[in-house]
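Why do we care about 3D structure at all? Because function follows from shape, and shape follows, mostly, from sequence. That is the central idea of this module. The next example makes it concrete: a single protein chain, its amino acid sequence, and then its structure expressed as C-alpha cells.
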Amino acid sequence: MKPQFIKAFLVSSILMGCSTATETTNVQPAANTINKATASVQTVAESKALLLAKWQGPFQGVPAFDQVTLAGLVPAMEQAMAANLAEIDLIANNTQAPTFENTIVAMEKTGSDLDRIFTYYGIWSANKSSTEFRKIQTELAPKLSTFSSAIKQNQQLFDRISAVYNSDEVKTLSPAKQRLVFLTYNSFSRDGATLNDSDKERYALINQRLAQLQTKFGNNVLADEENYVVYLSKAQLGGLPDSIVNVAAAAATERDREGEYAITNTRSSMDPFLTYSTERMLRKQVWQNYYSRGDNGDDFDNNAIIAEILQLRHERVGLLGYKNYASWRLEDRMAKSPENAIALMESVWPAAIARVDEEVADMLAIGKKQDGIEQVQAWDYRFYAEKVRKDKYDLDSDEVKQYLQLNNLREAMFYVAGRLFNFNFTEVTDGSVPVFHEDVRVWEVKDKTSGEHIGLWYLDPFARKGKRSGAWATTYRSHTTFEGKKNVLSSNNSNFSKGVAGQPTLISWSDAETYFHEFGHALHFLASKVEYPTLNSGVRDYTEFQSQLLERWLATDEVINNYLVHYQTGKPMPKALIAKIKQAATFNQGFSTTEYLASALVDMKFHTVDPTGIDPDKFERETLAALKMPKQIVMRHRSPQFGHIFSSEGYASSYYGYMWAEVLTSDAAEAFAQAPGGFYDKDVADKLVEHLFSVRNAVDPSEAYRAFRGRDAKVEALMRDRGFPVKTNKEQ
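And the structure:
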C-alpha cells in the first residue's frame, strides 16, 4: 500500500452502496473467517502471522484465502502500519539530498505488508462481511485515518517530495516518471501537507471522524439490505417468469423458509420483481423497502450521518482555501471544476426528462386500458415500461433472458479479450489457488501469441448474505516492473441471483451489460504496462470509460451469434429477436438517464453549498423539485443509501463521472463503428490498448484520449447513443 494513496484505498474499500417489510430476516452473522475450518484452531498470534506472511504458491504467490482468520486482524494491521511508518521515517530522515530514486521510488517500495493485509480486509468488508468484522472495521477506521495523516502530514517527507518536484532533475526524467512525481506531490499538497500545525491537527481529526461516519453509513445500508426481505406465497407470484420464481425459491430456502419465495432488498432482486409482478401493492412494498434503505428513522438511519459528513468535508477543504468540497475534488479531474461537470449534465437533463414524459404517456395508455390505473407511480414504471416494450417492439425481456446464460457470457467476454487484447483465459482447477468462498473460480491469463503469463482473474458472481450489493472490480496485486515484473491478480464481483442447482443462471440484458462493464475494469488492470504502483491509480471521471466501452461488445454479431444460445434448445438467438433488441436500443433512456442524472446532480449540489444546518432529506426533495424531477422516477441512489458518495469519498461530488466517461465511451465506440473491421478492427483495437488501457495513469487522461482519437471527445455522440435530439451548430 503506497503511503500517498492510503486514503484513496480507505475510501474505496468501505462498503457502498424502508418502510416496514412484511417480514424481516433473522440475520445470522456470516462466517467470521474467510475459511471456517481454521477458525477454531488459530490463536491470535497464528492468525496475525498468516495475515502478515508473504504470499506463497504459484503465480508469484497468491493470497492465502483458505487460511486467514479475523482473530489476528487488528494486531496484524497495527504492526503493518508501524512498519510502514518506520519505512517512511527512513525516507524522511535520509541525510542525502532528495532525488527521484531516494525519495519517490523509495516511497513506491513501502507498505508491502499493508498491501497484503488490505487484500484480506477488502474481502471481509465487501464479500464476507459479518457482525464481528463490522466491529473490527469500526475500531480500525479511526486508526487507519490517524496512520494516513501521520504520513501525509510528515513535514520532512513533504519537504523532500517538494524538493524533487521543483528540482532540475525532474526535467530529465521520462514522461511517466514525471507524472509519478506530480501525482505524489499533488496527493500530499491537496491533503493537508501545506497547512500550519494547528490546521494539520484539525485536518487529521476531521479525517478520523469521517472514517468513523463513512464506515457507519455503509454498514447501516448493508444492515437494511439484510433485514428487509419480502416473503411471498405461491398465490402471490402473478406475472413472475419461472426464472425469477426459481431464484426467489432458492433465496427463501437459504433463509430457512422452504416453500416460500424471498424478494431480497437488493437491486438484482428488486428490479426484476418490479418489472414482472402483477401484484401492485407488493410492487409498492418492495419498492419502498429498497428506496428507504438508510432512511427508516431507526438505529440504521443515515440522515444525521450525511449532515455531519457534509459539514466536516466542507470544513476540511476550507482549511485548504477552497470555497466548497466539489471545487477541491474536481481540480485534478478531467472536468476541472463543478461548473464544467454541471454544464455537461444540464446539457443532457432537458432531453432526458422530456423523454420521460413521452415514456409515461405510453405507459399510462396501456395501464388505463389493461388495468384501469389513473396514473403511473414509481413502483409501476418498470412494469408498464416492459408492457410498452412488448407493444412497441414486440420485445419480451424474459424471452431475451433465455439466451443470456451466465457461463456463456463469461466465455463471450473471454472471446472479446482474445480479439482485442490477445489474452487467453484458462481455468485453474487443480486447487493451487485458494479462494474465499466455494462460488469463486479462478482463471490464468496468458498472451495468446507468446504464452507469457499476464495474471489471474478471480470471479465471485453470486449474491449471498454478508456480501455488499452491486458489482465491482478490484485487484489483489497490480502490474509493476520497477522491482522485477509483478503479475496481476484481478477480481470481478457480482450479485447475480443463483438459480436452481444444475440449471444455468439466466440474467437480463442490463445485467449482461454490467457483467461486461466490470470485466472492462479487469481488462484495464490486466493490460497495465506501468512501471510503478502509483501509476496504476485512476482518475475518477475517466476510470469508468474503459469499462463502459467494453459493454458495446455484448451487442456485436460475433458475440450474439456464437454465445447467446437458448438455455434449453441450444439454438442461437433468432435474427428477428436480435433485430428487435437493436431496434429497442434507445428504449427507456428517459428513465435510465434521469434516475442516474438526478443522483449525480444532487451529489454535486450537496457538495457545492454551505452545509451548515442542512437537512439531507429536505435538501434532496427541494433540489429535485427545482430540477422538475418527474414524480414517477426516483434517484438511482437516494441520499441515505448513496454509498458511492457517503460510505467513502471515492465518488463524492464525482458521480457525474459516469456520464463524463460515457461521452468518451460513445465517441470511442463511433471510432470502432466507422472502422473497416468494425468493433474488431485490429488497428483501432491496438490503439485502444496502447493509449487507453495499458498506460493506466501514467499519461494524463485528456492526452491519452487525444492520442487514441486524434481529437477531444464530442458530446453529440452521447446524444445519438441515447436517441436524444442533437443540436445543430446554429441551435448551439
